């Protein structure tokens, strides 16, 4: 088993007034040659957007972009004609493929929106762009990891063009679980949303990130009440 620890305070940080963002991997003006990606996981941004503000229309291509709201309402518009609002309990995916323009705004004028912006390299280039969002409220479990993303259209959660599985979990203190990788050639990047946990013997606190690879499974324990995102992705 191989691991890498990225503690919360070591992330890149940019505060633009309307946007307060922490970058686990190199992004925009934050550049760290040792923090370019973890496997095909290219971007993990922890964003807070001021009331009524947001990202104006801008382009992307050849990237799988996943948004997971943590608090508040995020309004999406894109060049494919999609208009939608996502909130906590939803997951959004946009396959940029050959190219797409989109905007993301805080729909509310009285409170921040907090969300994770995640980019994953696709398994093929110049695919047809697509958009999807789902509610995961009905599949949510207590004290267990539940799937919110996979490579398969028929599976639970959204799907992307990559051999990846994302799981969310909310745990009470003292609860434990064994995570079994779907593909032994993959790795897992764990991101602690709240609380304190132990993964493969490593203690992690809120907003710490931890990469694991060269293993088929690992042990998880919640030391305090916690929320965790597991991102299983190819390592090449």
TrEMBL record:
Per UniProt, residues of the Quercetin 2,3-dioxygenase C-terminal cupin domain are 148-233
Name its species: Maribellus comscasis
Which Gene3D superfamilies does this UniProt record tie to the protein? Jelly Rolls
Q: Which family does it belong to?
A: Belongs to the pirin family.
Q: Where in the numbering of this chain does the Pirin N-terminal domain appear?
A: 10-120
Co-factor binding comment: Binds 1 Fe cation per subunit.
Per UniProt, what is one GO molecular function of this protein? Answer: metal ion binding
Q: What is this protein called?
A: Pirin family protein
Residues that hold Fe cation according to the record: 58, 60, 102, 104
What's in the keyword line of the UniProt record?
Iron, Metal-binding
| InterPro entries, alphabetized | Pirin, Pirin_N_dom, Quercetinase_C, RmlC-like_jellyroll, RmlC_Cupin_sf
Q: Which cofactor does it need?
A: Fe cation
User: Membrane-spanning regions, if any?
Assistant: none
């Amino acid at each position: 088993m191989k691991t890498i620890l990225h503690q919360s305070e070591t992330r890149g940080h940019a505060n633009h007034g309307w946007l307060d963002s922490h970058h686990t991997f190199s992004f925009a003006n934050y550049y760290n040659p040792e923090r370019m990606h973890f496997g095909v996981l290219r971007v993990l941004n922890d964003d807070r957007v001021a009331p009524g503000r947001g990202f104006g229309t801008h382009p992307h291509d050849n990237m799988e972009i996943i948004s997971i709201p943590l608090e508040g309402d995020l309004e999406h518009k894109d060049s494919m004609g999609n208009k939608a609002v996502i909130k906590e309990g939803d997951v959004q995916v946009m396959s940029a493929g050959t190219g797409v323009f989109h905007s993301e705004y805080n729909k509310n004028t009285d409170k921040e929106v907090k969300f994770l912006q995640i980019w994953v390299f696709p398994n093929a280039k110049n695919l047809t762009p697509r958009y999807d969002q789902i509610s995961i409220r009905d599949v949510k479990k207590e004290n267990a990891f539940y799937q919110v993303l996979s490579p398969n259209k028929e599976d639970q959660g959204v799907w992307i063009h990559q051999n990846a599985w994302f799981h969310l979990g909310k745990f009470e203190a003292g609860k434990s679980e064994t995570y079994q990788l779907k593909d032994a050639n993959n790795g897992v990047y764990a991101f602690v949303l709240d609380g304190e946990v132990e993964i493969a013997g490593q203690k992690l606190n809120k907003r710490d990130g931890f990469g694991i690879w060269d293993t088929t499974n690992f042990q998880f324990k919640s030391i305090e009440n916690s929320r965790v995102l597991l991102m299983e992705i190819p390592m090449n």
